[in-house]
TrEMBL record:
Keyword Transferase: yes
Domain of life: Bacteria
GO molecular function: N-acyltransferase activity
GO BP terms in the entry: siderophore biosynthetic process
InterPro entries tied to this protein: Acyl_CoA_acyltransferase, Acyltransferase_MbtK/IucB-like
Pathway involvement of the protein, from the record: Siderophore biosynthesis
Organism: Fictibacillus aquaticus
Keywords (A to Z) from UniProt: Transferase
Protein's name in the database: Lysine N-acyltransferase MbtK
Keyword Glycosyltransferase: no
Function as written in the Swiss-Prot or TrEMBL entry: Acyltransferase required for the direct transfer of medium- to long-chain fatty acyl moieties from a carrier protein (MbtL) on to the epsilon-amino group of lysine residue in the mycobactin core.
Amino acid sequence: MGKTISFVKVELERDAAMLHEWQQQPYVIPFWKLDIPFEAYVKHLEKFLADTHQTLYLGLIDGVPMSYWEAYWVKGDVVEDTYDYHPHDQGIHLLIGEEAYLGKGYALPMLRAMVAFQFLSKKTEKVIAEPDITNDKMIHVFETCGFEKVKPIQLPDKTGMLMFCHRETFERRWSDVIESAAGESV
């Protein structure tokens, strides 16, 4: 890719306005459904930042914020009731917020880097995703990364496609990414 990928934890004061703007984008609204007034979004973000089962990140390319990530533990999430989960399963949500980065091939290397980071937890054998069942582009990116479709699941805000990425599959496919993630801090 020839660019530097990094992640920083979301900070309410620094990031709320930018994240709210991203949630207003026509390509984001159908899948995130957070096209709400700024004050309501700040309350939503405060609640998510206080939720100890997940960590929120900005994804950066060459130091420029361009994506939003929710890395979470399945235990404690609404998705835990949709399959027989292992206590160390993790999940991921993401969106490309800056339109200039859409369609440029950044989603896959960013996803690989985040999943490699999640697999640094030695007890995690599986990372899951549940993109909206109509989001063909993201389902394709997840599949290219090593996720496999499991089944459609009903969640409070959508019908998602439950997808699993097993450690063994990921390590076999992306061993170079894992080595680089182990040497960097996210």
